Amino acid sequence: YFSPAFGPFKFGISYTPEFQPGLNGNTCGSTGGFGGQYGVCTTHNPGQWQHAIEGGGRFDFDLNGVAIAWSLGGLYASPEIHNSDYTNMWSFASGLSGTFNNFTIGGAYRWTNSGYKGKYDNVMFGLGGTYTSGPWGFSLAWAQVRDQDGGHGNKTDVLNFVDGGVVYNLGPGVDVFAGAQYARFTGDCCGGPQSSALKGYFGSKLTF
Q1: Disulfide engineering: 28 pairs with which of 41, 43, 76, 129, CB 3.0-4.6 Å?
Q2: Neighbours of 144 (CB within 10 A)
Q3: What digits encode the pLDDT tens for the residues 44-77?
Q4: Is the predicted pLDDT of residue 31 greater than 50, yes or no?
Q5: DSSP 3-state assignment of 8?
Q6: Cα–Cα distance between 67 and 82 in angstroms, integer?
Q7: How far apart are CA 104 and CA 88, in angstroms?
Q8: Are 137 and 130 in contact (CB under 8 A)?
Q9: DSSP letters along 20-56, please?
Q10: Across-strand partners of 149?
């Protein structure tokens, strides 16, 4: 349910009977491949959660000429199987941004216990900004993800990510863009104790 706006405030709430979290959302019955075939969740399976309730709200207001946007949301779900591994899943997230003239600066924070007992907390936080001048737009952002490995000596994996880009408006609804991304990982998972990557990209976008 999405509410109408009550002055500067609006909110939404949802209920999901059952789900299995994954990189592509709810992955119950996934057969893999590029077709994205997903089945229906069956009951009483380890690694699946039920009765998920999500809610979020957003405030938009003006503070001495600065446009402020603040959001807050959360999720609760119970595991289908209660055992030594699974527990109630909790997630919270919040974001704040301010826009003045052609500048926007914002930050976000997210935490979840991943639905597992022990030290499996996953925390993400980041900062970013944009600047526009005529047809040009510029952006720079940084984010860090900290993921506790409860099953690997309670160590923490850390991923730092930086993205910078530029966009140029060729005309109504037509943009071209380019940028670069850098990521650095340290921890016990996914490629060894330390790895990094650098990527450049460019493209165009048509909006109508």
Answers
A1: 41
A2: 14
A3: 777 788 899 999 999 999 988 899 999 999 999 9
A4: no
A5: coil
A6: 46
A7: 37
A8: yes
A9: -EETTEE-TT--BTTTTB---PPSS-TT-EEEEEEEE
A10: 155
